[in-house]
Write a structure and sequence with these properties.
This protein is of the alpha/beta class. Helices cover 22% and strands 23% of the residues. It has nine helices and 17 strands. It has an eleven-stranded mixed β-sheet, sandwiched between helices. α2 crosses α3. The chain is globular and about 65 Å long. The chain starts with 11 loop residues before the first strand and ends with a strand. The N terminus is likely disordered.
Length: 427
């Protein structure tokens, strides 16, 4: 991972003035030699700017109850820059409501770097529950390599809005309805925003979704939802038969709320689905999955007990693109995507359980995600063919000896440092 992160893990590194008071911001990353992390996890040529935007749907939207309501989203948007002196920080809260602040490797509200060709946009979508900066390492990383990256606070589905201890499923119906819709709306909002207009590429974009964000991303690139009476009732809590029919009709959309998969935006060139939810319940129409024609990289722990590893495999098996791949993280559960836990999460399993992996170091998982996210986006969004080779690894990464010979490591990994991964491809 990036060697520019210095200092000890979870040590206070700087102070920022917030509303007249000094606030400590912690760093979540250690400094490792570049050799022990995947090659493409190194930062790119740009510094990183970041800005926070509030964007509103232009028209009232229909919620899960059938009512018309206004809907707005808060976005954290990273972008390439060449200026900046004082790095910023991100603030949010863990599931129990404890607030925290972490040091960024980005400069707030600085100017975007001039470019001869527009920057592709990547949309990042968190899980249930979560927050827009839960994968900030990916936002910063891709921005440093020449992308505009917009991460969403999905309204009704964040740690701030859902009391996970007392009413953990209160935001789940909205999550089912709005994940893909929010991803499509975010892309359009960023491309047309005055700050990015003319610098954001309208023809090339990627989407990254974790857990429920992955549930949305699979639909965003072409799959249709296939809720039946039972699953529509179970996952929304609706019991009355006529209401179930309305809910089922509302949920069973395609490609960001459209009526058919034919309406998928052609701007989407690649999707990264990290532990996507929904496959274990077969909540997608198989025919529409078969018709997905852009590259999808699924990443899952083989012991995922939230999305179910068999469910992610079902999505992989039924996704039609010949460029579909499945990266399995051996001995991992569901937490393969969040940033390392802030110190405020270490008081109890309730908070720590949404960050920590039992058998993996989070920073290594983050670096693996950076590596393959950049390979995927550079290969298929920017059409930089030299990066495709980083995706064309196969089988186990373990370098187990074969007839006394130790295989070469995967491209982009140093000898001995790719242990615990398996890559499968449709082709």
């Amino acid at each position: 991972m990036k060697t520019l992160y210095l200092g000890l893990y979870l040590v206070i590194i700087s102070f920022f003035a917030v509303e007249g008071r000094a606030v400590a911001a912690q760093t979540l990353y250690k400094s490792f030699p570049a050799d022990v992390m995947p090659e493409l996890s190194e930062s790119g040529e740009y510094k990183v700017g970041v800005t926070t935007l509030t964007v509103s749907y232009p028209d009232l939207v229909t919620d899960i109850s059938g009512s018309k309501t206004a809907r707005s989203l808060t976005l954290e948007v990273w972008y390439p820059t060449t200026v900046g002196t004082d790095v910023t920080f991100y603030s949010d809260e863990v599931r129990s409501g404890k607030q925290f602040e972490v040091a960024a490797n980005a400069y707030r509200d600085v100017e975007i770097a001039n470019t001869d060709s527009a920057y592709p946009v990547v949309v990042i979508s968190h899980g249930y529950t979560g927050y827009r900066t839960i994968m900030y390492y990916l936002g910063e990383h891709l921005a440093s390599h020449g992308y505009i990256v917009a991460a969403i606070d999905h309204t009704d589905s964040t740690n701030k809005e859902v009391n996970f201890a007392e009413n953990p499923y209160s935001g789940f119906p909205s999550t089912l309805l709005n994940r893909s819709r929010d991803q499509v709306f975010t892309l359009n909002a960023v491309v047309e925003h005055p700050f990015f207009k003319g610098l954001a590429d309208k023809s090339k974009a990627g989407v990254i979704g974790y857990s429920m964000g992955g549930f949305g991303a699979v639909s965003t690139v072409g799959a249709c939802y296939a809720f039946n009476d039972s699953t529509a009732s179970v996952f929304t809590g609706v019991q009355e038969p006529s209401a179930i029919q309305w809910v089922k009709q509302a949920l069973n959309s395609c490609a960001g709320g459209k009526t058919t998969a034919d309406d998928v935006l052609p701007v989407w060139k690649a999707a990264l689905a990290l532990a996507p939810w929904g496959g274990q319940h077969q909540l997608f129409d198989v025919e529409s999955l078969n018709r997905i024609n852009i590259p999808v990289l699924y990443v899952a722990g083989d012991n995922d007990d939230i999305s179910g590893y068999h469910g992610v495999r079902w999505l992989f098996d039924n996704t039609g693109s010949s460029d579909t791949k499945l990266l399995t993280v051996k001995n991992a559960r569901h937490n393969i995507a969040p940033h390392p836990a802030p110190v405020e999460a270490y008081g109890n399993e309730f908070d720590l359980g949404s960050y920590l992996e039992p058998a993996w170091e989070t920073q290594k998982l983050n670096a693996i995600n950076e590596h393959f996210a950049l390979a995927l986006m550079n290969c298929h969004v920017k059409s930089l063919t030299q990066f495709c080779d980083y995706l064309h690894v196969t089988g186990s990464s373990d370098q187990a000896p074969v007839k006394g010979e130790v295989p070469a490591p995967w491209k982009g990994f140093d000898n001995r440092w790719a242990l615990g991964l398996v890559m499968e491809s449709k082709d």
